[in-house]
Amino acid sequence: MTATSVFDKxxxxxxxxxxxxxxxxxxxxxxxxxNSKADPRGYVRVKVYVCGEEKHSAKIHQISxxxxxxxxxxxxxxxxxxxxxxxxxxLCHNSKCFNPEHLIVxxxxxxxxxxxxxxxxxxxxxxxxxxxxxxxxxEKLRKCILPLHHLEKxxxxxSGEQTSAATTHPHPDDIATLDADADxxxxxxxxxxxxxxxxxxxxxxxxxxxxxxxxxxxxHSSSRVILKNLPVRPSLSRVALIATxxxxxxQQSLxxxxxxxxxxxxxxxRCINPEHIIxxxxxxxHRRKTCIGKTAVxxxxxxxxxxxxxxxxxxxxxxxPVEHGQDAVATSEERDASTEPTPAxxxxxxxxxxxxxxxxxxxxxxxIMAQELVEKYRAVTTDIGCWESGLKxxxxxxxxxxPLLKSHGVSPFLHQLAVIATNRGDELKKTLDxxxxxxxxxxxLCHNGKCFNPEHLIVxxxxxxxxxxxxxxxxxxxxxxxxxxxxxxxxxEKMQKCILPTLQLEAGHxxxxxxxxxxxxxxxxxxxxxxxxxxxxxxxxxxxxxNDDKNVSDVPSLRSxxxx
Length: 564
What we know:
- The protein is an alpha+beta fold.
- It is built from 17 helices and 24 strands.
């Protein structure tokens, strides 16, 4: 049964009943929420019974559209065979919300554009207001619903970003949160992890393995524990990494498409001894299968260890059982005669040294050479300190025609040269490693791709780079003696604050008029606009009480849940 046919069988009365039962609380922003646990994408799902028997799963905000008599809009998001160019947008940026006044149907393009307002706030003061959302100025787009920030009561920097789950993949040495699983594991502290290990540690084998008291279920690489009030069921092998302050290694293995795995050197997935657990590439993990069943031989004080992996760079020797004395009849050479030899590391292995051609070419550029090129092409300095070359074309400035670069067959971007010029070539290699598989980017803190000021450039995970888009097009607001910086990213571990232009405002009501960040694209039908095509908002007044800090601004005209 298709999703469309399932929703066709849900009446408006039934949908209203489901919404009423699950509407537990209303937030200060007007969001309706339930106590149900959200899925990994942040949405709340409900079970739908069709004809009293068949059970299906649906997102609660989809049911909310049916309850508010907007079934036709919902069908636009389903399309044929589950494919559609339309999405249900949460104007409040709260994926758990199912208030129909916060939900609109618009193109996927416009839905993605709203990410720049995630975590932003409406600034208000006596006789002054500033709305950071630029989307209301675009035809058929509605303004985002954002919380208020009273300057005289709270002049602290923005700390309200609701960081979306990243969809990029982990990468070596990346210490930042990369996906929903990473967010969940961040809730487990090393102290909590150590308590879990002590609680579930069973007997210790002769090989030093700590066997878990929990059963390893089929399809799982390690036993899992259920933690109350936490949205994750961690495997004890991952808990062991957190307990030994190796969260950075754990981050690499998270995500369904990660190239890295948690490996047991002892080849026993019941083991939770942190000394037996490492994170390595899938390639190296697969190679360790050649050591399964082998033993180390001790004869006359000498040890013959059959594992060849310790001699491979960035690999560790397997932990194998030991045979002593004359009873140990087989040497490693004798055993390996009937075993397929371990292949040598190839150029594509994730654990070998970087062999990317582009990286190798950039290695020929010294910091002094890079500095000379940076100074040569530096032509314009903007108000916020960006260095620009004045070269036309492209999103980034690229150096093409110098004899030095031609001799090495490379045409680097100016921001790459700026990183090399400041002796950060090793960081730059992370962005070039394995070409399209790279999980690092050179981030422009100023959001200006043509800038090559080294102080505006950092190397960070492309997940964090994407998160910075929430600041793109926003400004530091200066009003009287107040200065408000909208960037929340310096509150995230090892992230730096974005560099934004300043905007001096006088008394009055102001809106963000930065339209270039929206670009061109399909402006989708907005089925929930008012009949005359205008937006209806609550006016900001000078007089307010202490509870006004959290009131909603730009709330559309209210409509009953059953009206058209």
